Amino acid sequence: MSEPDDGRPTEVIAGDLSECDTEAVTEPLATEPHDGQPSPAPDPVQEAEQDEFEGPRRRARRERAERRAAQARATAIEEARREAKRRVHGGAVKEPKPVARGVVRGLKMLLATVVLLIVGLGLGLILYFTPAMSARDIIVTGVGNVTREEVLAAASIRPGTPLLQINTKEVADRVATIRRVAIARVQRQYPSALRITIVERIPLVVKDFPDGPHLFDRDGVDFATGPPPPALPYLDVDNPGPTDPATLAALQVLTALRPEVAGQVGRIAAPSVSSITLTLSDGRVVIWGTTDRAEEKAEKLAALLTQPGQTYDVSSPDLPTVK
Questions:
Q1: Quick check: 175 and 182 in contact, CB under 8 A?
Q2: Domain span at residue 242?
Q3: d(CA 103, CA 122)
Q4: Which of 200, 221, 246 finishes a domain?
Q5: For 36-77, how does the pLDDT look when each residue is reduced to its tens digit (9 = 90+)?
Q6: Rounded to two decimals, what is the model's pTM?
C-alpha cells in the first residue's frame, strides 16, 4: 500500500502480474467523517424502508407516545404560564367557570318562547284591529217562519267588523230574543264569514185569547199569534206560561203520548197538576190524573182506545177502566 500526495490512504488493486507487472490502480477508501464536519442528510428511501420494517402496531404506539408527549409539554407550558401569572399578581388566579350546557339550552328555549309570544301578540293585534279577517259574509241557516232579514236585524252586526271583535254569545242572545227562535248559535268562519244558525219553536198547543189564538211550544213559551196549524190541540189552563205548573204538567202529558194517540187529542185541560183530562177529536174523554207514571199510562191508554167506550180512566195504571 502506498500513500498519494493528497494524504488520503489508497487501496492498491493488483491485477494479473503476468499481463501487467508495473500497473497499479488506486481507489480512495471510505473513511468516517472528521470531527466538526456535518453528517450526511438522511435518505428518504431508507426512512420509508425503516417505517415498513417498523410495522403498523409499533408505528401507532409510537405516534400515541408522541401525542402524549406533546400534550404533556402543552400542559407544562400552561402550568408555567399560570404560575408566572400568580407570581406577578401575588396570589392565585381564579379561572372562569364554564357555562353549563343546561343553562345554555334553557336560555335558547326562553329566547324562542319570547320570540313566539311577540309574533303571536303581533298577529293577534293585526287581526283584532284591522279588517284582514272581517265579517264580510253573514250566513243564516235554519230559517223558516223567521226570515233572514229578521235574524240580521236582531244580530245587529256592522259589515266589515273584524271577526275577533264580534262577541258570538252576545249576538246569539240578541237573535234568541226573536219569539219564534228557540235556539241561536253564532260561529266565526275564518277568514271572513260569520254563521248564524237558528232552531225555530214548534207549536204544541194553542190557546184562545181576545187578540186571537196564541201558539205555545213544549216549554210553555207563547211565541206566536195567529191561525194554528191543523189538528193542534187546545190548552185549557188559567195562566199559561213557562212557569205555570199546570201548563207544564199538561205539556208533559202530551209529549208522553204515543204519536197515534197524540194526533187524536183535540183539547187538554189542567185545572190543576193532579186533575188532567184529555178530550179526543171524536168526543171521547180520557181521565189522566197526575203526571206520575206517565209512560205507563200512555202505554195502557193506547191499548184501551182499541176498545169501545166513552170514558177511559188511566189515572191508576194498575186498574185502567173503560166506561
A1: no
A2: 205-322
A3: 29
A4: 200
A5: 444 455 555 555 555 555 678 888 888 888 999 999 998 889
A6: 0.59
